[in-house]
Hints:
mainly beta; four-stranded antiparallel sheet
Amino acid sequence: xxxxxxxxxxxxxxSALAQLPMQICVVTVDSTLTHNEVVWERNAQPxxxxxxxxxxxxxxxxxxxxxxxxxxxxxxxxxxYAANPNLRSYTYAIAGMDLVGNIGPMSSxxxxxxxxxxxxxxxxxxxxxxxxxxxxxxxxxxxxxxxxWADDFNSGTWNLEQATTAMxxxxxxxxxxxxxxxxxxxxxxxxxxxNCSPTxxxxxxxxxxxxxxxxxxxxxxxxxxxxxxxYPNPSNGIVNIAFSSLSFVENxxxxxxxxxxxxxxxxxxxxxxxxxxxxxxxxFSKGVYFVNITNVxxxxxxQKIILQ
Length: 308
């Protein structure tokens, strides 16, 4: 009889998991600005869950990989310490798992905002761009505004510089601040009219980006160039290229054919954070090519592409 009741409990648990996916409340860069947080509300989730599985999307393949697990009755918040918010945006999803290992459907995906600074060629202005928050699709879901903040002297005091009230407005030009100020820092956050309440933790009523500056110094303990991503590969038309730079130095993008001939070259690209661009290769001959990203310090990232 006990076995029967236990089996019925497990079946009803799995039924709840199968029919009602868990959902993320918000994702954000942590208040220390060093890693990411994924937050869900336990009281809004299906019954019968033993633990929560957290997934992160692989930017190269688009697939989701497990990055952590959390007991359901513990803090409903996951700190992804392996994430580097200065490199790019991260996309997360979660799923519930019952006592015998049945995993429910994956939640809707939420993506953090990634803040990048791009050189405008003007010493008195910088272009500020950020990837949009993904997870809430419209104004009615709780979005009020993106807010740009500046810390002029790296003092920890942030001043509101600009607010954008449209979710598709994700750039701003600071035309009054010299880009050579080494103590100038920026970040962007969202003014929500929603409130996330993870168990045994402070409420979350905002989602913030990474902190970045137009004159970031070179890191001495890691490479400046990281995470070259090219897709689709193979390609027969448009190639999308993304890479991350951890210092505000000049970079170049080259596409070289198998003989070593340069068929595409873009120089003087100065950016901190992730930069992405689309290149039309439909007029190139079919075959194997190499994409080279090189900075002024001699660092290089290379990846092979096939044009069909």
